[in-house]
Amino acid sequence: MDLNDEHWRTWTHRFLALLAADLPDQQVWLGERRLTVQSAVEEAEFARSIAEGLTDRGVLTPGHLHTLRAVARRTGALDATARTASWADSLAADPAWDEVRTLARGFLHTLPDDQPLPLPRPVPPNPGDR
Fold this sequence. Notes:
- The chain is mostly helical.
- Helix content is 63%, strand content 0%.
- It has six helices and no strands.
- It is globular, with a radius of gyration of 14 Å.
- It starts with a helix and ends in a 21-residue tail after the last helix.
- The model has no long low-confidence stretch (mean pLDDT 86).
């Protein structure tokens, strides 16, 4: 596997691990970050885009791509006014995130090694996120 493909496959799996995590774990991971729902929508669309290329190169399956498209559609359907809200707050308030969590868990359960993935390592908040 190409190193770039490996990098983006790992990035996609980690992003899905964040989306699949239980609500309290997601909120702890988001912690002090002041990311908006719009950030989550953009990341889901980016993951879908990455998955299309990885699927074309045989790194991901068409089933994985189907799931990532569903995640991107679901997050993309969030109300425009909700997109300015805090992502951490929205996770508890909007039932759409339960659907996204279920989709992400389904994706992770279909990985060949079927090992649970930890949440991505926390990164200190970017000063621009405040």
